[in-house]
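Holo prediction — 6-O-phosphono-beta-D-glucopyranose.
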Amino acid sequence: MPSIPPSDRPEPCVLVIFGASGDLTHRKLIPALYELYEQNLLPERCCVVGVSRTPMTDHAFREKVAPSVEKFAAHFDKAKWADFARRVHYHAADASKLDDYDGLSKRIESLADQHGVPRQREGSPNILFYLSVAPELYDPIITCIGAAGMVSEGKRWCVIDKGDVPWQRIIVEKPFGSDLNSAIALNRTLGQVFEEESIYRIDHYLGKELVQNILVMRFGNRIFEPIWSAQHVDHVQVTAAETVGVGSRAANFYDGSGAMRDMIQSHLLQVMALVAMEPPSSYNADALSRERIKLFKSIRPIPAEDAHQHAAFGRYAAADGEPAYTEEKGVDPARKTDTYAAMRVHIDNFRWAGTPFYLRSGKKLARKLTEVVVQFKAPPAWMFRGVAERPPNRIVINIAPDDGVSIRLEAKVPGPKLTIDSVKLDMDYSATFNAKPVEAYGPLLLDAMRGDRMLYKHREEVEGAWTVCQPLLDSTQLRSQIQTYKPNSWGPDNADQLMSADARKWHNPRAAEKR
Ligand code: BG6
C-alpha cells in the first residue's frame, strides 16, 4: 500500500483491543498496525491500548509483542518499531466487569490527551474497540461499554450535527455466534449500544485482494456479465483447503465449531455472494450489502431431514505419526466435529436457477488452496466432427496462494490436421502488479478507522449465512454419516458422491498444476 498524505489519513483515534494477550493480537493485529505505521497510513495522532486481565506495564506488553511483530510483519525495522511502540499501551482490567470500566475510561481519556487525540468537551475521543476475546465475552463486554457510557455517539435520530460528535466503533471478530439464534442475540446486544453503521463484523476473507477483485472483474469489464448466469454457467465451486490440522485450537475452539461453522458459514458464503450477487447500484457499503443480503435470501432452504443429501462431513484420520482428529488434545469424538464440510447451494433467482454452487473446506487436505471455479457449459453443438469433444471453458479465480485468474479455452493446435487442445489465459496477480497481496488485517483496520464498512458484514448478511447453514448443523443424520478421510487427500468419499450424484467432479489441482 502506498503511503497517503496526513490529510487523507483516518481521523485521530484510540484503538482499544480487548484480548491483548490473545493469539490474534500478537500474530495479526499488532503486526498489522505496525505495518500501517511503517507505511505512514495511520493517523498522526493515535494510540493503541491492549486490555487483558494480567497486570503488566506498557513496557512489558511492548516487550511481549515485539517478537511477534518481528516475525509476522512484512518488514521489521527496529527503530521504526521503537517509534511505534511508544503508541502501544496496556491496561489491566477484567473487561467483563462493569466496575473496571471507570478505570478504563479514564485511561483512554488520559492516553487520548497524551497522544493529542481530541476529545469533545473533555469527554470521549474517537474510539475503535476491537473484540479479540473468547466469544462468550462479547456480550458482557458490549453491555459494559454501553453501561459505562463509553459510546457518546447518540442514536442517529437525536444527533443534530454528527460532525461534532466523536465516533465510537466496534470491530467484532468471528465466530459471530455459534448458530442462528446466538447470532441474532449478539446482533441485538450490539444494536442496543451501537448504531449498525458503527458495527464492523470482520471477515478477513473480504480483505483479500483477489476476493475484492471479484467485483472489479465482474463489473469493471463488459465481457463477463452477459455470460454470468445459468444460461452459460454449468456450476460454480468455492474451495478453501488447508494442509494443516487443528492442532492446539481443538480444545478451546474447534471441537465445538467445525468446518461448516468456521469456514463455510463465514468466509465461503461471502465469497459465493460476491460471485453470484446482482450488480450493486454503486460501489459503496450499503449498496453492496443490500445485494449480498438479497442473494442470501434467494438461497433455497434445505430441510433438516434432507441435509444429508446436500452436504457431507468428514474428519481426518491419523497419518505419518500425526494423530487423527479424534485423538487431538481436547477433542470429544462423540461430538463428531467436521474438519471437512461440503455443501450444494441452489440460488432460486432469475440469474442462477438451475446452476448449483458447491462449497467445501477442510483441514489436512492435499493442498493449501482457496479458489473459485466457474465451470461453463459446453458449446450448444460440437461442430468439429471427427475431433473428440473438449472440456468446456472454465474460469479459475485463485485467491491464495497463487493469486490470479485463469481462463481455459480451446484452441487449434498448429498443423495441417485439425487438433484441438486446451490453453490457458493466465493472469498472475502479484507478477502483473509487482506486489504481493498484503495481510488482510491492516487494510481492514484502516477501513474501520475511516468509517468505511464496504469490506465488513451487515447484520442481515451474518444472519442470512447462518440461516443457510443451520439445517445442516441441526441434522443428526448428516453428522452421524461423518466419514474419515486420509490426510493429504481431497476429503471424504461422501463429498465426491455429492458431486457424482450431479454428474460433476471437484476441481482438485495437483501440486504442480497452477490454476
Ligand atoms: C479462520 C479460521 O477464519 O480462517 C481458521 O478460523 C482457518 O480455522 C483460517 O485456518 C484460514 O484463513 P486463510 O486466510 O489462511 O485461508
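READOUT: The chain has two domains: 6-173, 206-500.
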